[in-house]
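In this section we walk through a basic example: taking a raw amino acid sequence and producing a predicted 3D structure, encoded as discrete structure tokens. The instruction is simple. Fold the sequence below.
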Amino acid sequence: MLLSEIKRKALELSDGLKLLDFGFGLPYTWILAEGPDGKALGVAMTLPEEIQRYRNSIDEPSIEAFIEKADSLNVIERTLGIAAINAVSQYHIDLSGAEWVDVLELLPEDAGRVAMIGNMPPVVRALREKGIKTLVFERNPKLWDRETLSDALEYILLPGAEAVIASGSALVNGTLEMILDRAKNAELIVLTGPTAQLHPELVKGTGITHLAAMNVVNLKRALLGLKLGSFRGFEEGNRKYVVEVR
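The resulting token sequence is shown next.
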């Protein structure tokens, strides 16, 4: 299982890190970690449509305790676990070779059919304005428009995609492994968004070619945005980056 392997690798990176603070909330669940070299903030998109009456089994919160739950069937535990993995990843990640660009800049001019996993209207609009054939898949009906496809069709249509841009939320809802399996013909597979803060080593060999995420540059502003439930407030404290998975 992909999440179990990511969890195993993340636990190896968590040594020496302690939990400073955390929150399960909207729009993001977040974990603040600290080590000898400073603090790191990791987030994961909270998916309210997935939440039921779960009871969290974590009695003593810690970085390791949260990471251990990253492959749980309990979506609350899984979301906290992925946020913890992202905190550990952001603590260790080397962004000296990163490109500080938008995800769209990864696509070649002659890009063929692009599959967008998760309806991200600004990205979709920009792709279609360039004349790129774009298939948009979304699980949450509240985010559908007339051209949005149910995520149930990913299994059928992904083999025909030449490039895939997948929201990091695919980690949270447990669909990433299926997406990667069905998108084997794609030359470019990008995991994007705040939930894609993973360390590249955690997804090496999976088929993912790039991670397009956000690095916190103003911790105070980003944390305030998270505590206030603000997309924009959190994102104002960050800078977009792209790293290649080698």
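Looking at the output, two observations stand out. The domain at 2-92 is CATH 3.30.390.100 (Enolase-like; domain 1). The chain has two domains: 2-92, 103-217+238-244. In the next section we compare this with other chains.
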